[in-house]
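Hey team,

Filing this mostly as a record. A colleague (T.K.) asked me to run one chain through the structure pipeline before their review meeting, and I want the input and output archived in the tracker in case anyone asks later how it was produced. No errors, nothing strange. Just documentation.

Input sequence:
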Amino acid sequence: MWEYEYSVEAEVEPRAVFGLWTDAENWHTWNDGVGAVEVHGPFAAGTEFTMTPPGQDTVTMLIADVTEDRGFTDVNIEFDDVVITTFHRIEDLGAGLTRVTYRTEITGDAADTVGAEVGPLICADFPDVVDALVARAAQLGATG
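Output structure:
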């Protein structure tokens, strides 16, 4: 298994973070690594979505689970020999503090090889993405 995790603690409301996640078609407004997103149904477990990063090919993902105001998990369903799972988690730490975590796990027969090759590419922007996410959530909290 290959894995990588990035977390940040910030003074944001879990509901604001979760709301940004469930508005997938607008991820590009706070995530520079996302171009177009099309969700093929409700933002719920079992729904597929496509994401086209700027200048890259479209990838097909599956929402594996969703827990209101706590997070969601997506799985890249385009590979036969590995499973690439990304966990997006929110933890209310109390006193107005929230921990936001992105974690990717690559499992399967070729996990070590694929993980070494593409894992760092997939996760390279996690610090920027999570920081932008919590900044946008804080902005919404201040205006909402």
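Quick notes for T.K.: Residues 61 and 104 are 14 Å apart (CA to CA). The chain is about 30% helix and 40% strand.
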